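Preliminary data (for renewal application), 2-acetamido-2-deoxy-beta-D-glucopyranose complex.
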Amino acid sequence: MKTARYSLVIVCLMCIIGVHSTAADHIRPIRTFTMTVTNSLKTPMFNNSITLPIRWIRSRLIDYMETAGDIDQSKFKFTVTYFAKLGYFVNAFNDVYSVWNASEKNYWRISNQNGSLNVGVSTYEPQKGDRVVFELVSG
Ligand SMILES: *[C@@H]1O[C@H](CO)[C@@H](O)[C@H](O)[C@H]1NC(C)=O
Ligand SMILES: *[C@@H]1O[C@H](CO)[C@@H](O)[C@H](O)[C@H]1NC(C)=O
Ligand SMILES: *[C@@H]1O[C@H](CO)[C@@H](O)[C@H](O)[C@H]1NC(C)=O
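Predicted structure:
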């Protein structure tokens, strides 16, 4: 008897949550942006893109990079160095490291649809419709 009553309560809760989320989706379509990591400078070359929902909580690009890595580490693995006060600097995607020395000069350029970003991954907050691209380019 007790079990039956609990089941009824749970079913009702599921109905309420289900109806509520459908209504919310209808009113506010999911806002997204796309993130691409691309390298055609040295092997292994790759060009991987993912569409991610913009979070309700204010989030920086580095937070979305973590989400992409959680979804598919084989396409969006990254390596960073933390600089005090400045935040994270991207060293590598998918183990392809940027190099800056006498014989080789390249870096992971970050851009959106308007061009190169002048802030880093710890500062930039992706906006709805953004096309953020990380590309290994020659310096
Ligand atoms: C990477 O793929 C996207 C489509 O997903 C394309 O628009 C873009 O030009 C490609 N970039 C390179 C460097 O091939
Ligand atoms: C530059 O860095 C690359 C990769 O670490 C290395 O193979 C190369 O020998 C370096 N060149 C010089 C001049 O240090
Ligand atoms: C960047 O591009 C978007 C549209 O693609 C535009 O709405 C926005 O104003 C641009 N931002 C800047 C700073 O140019």
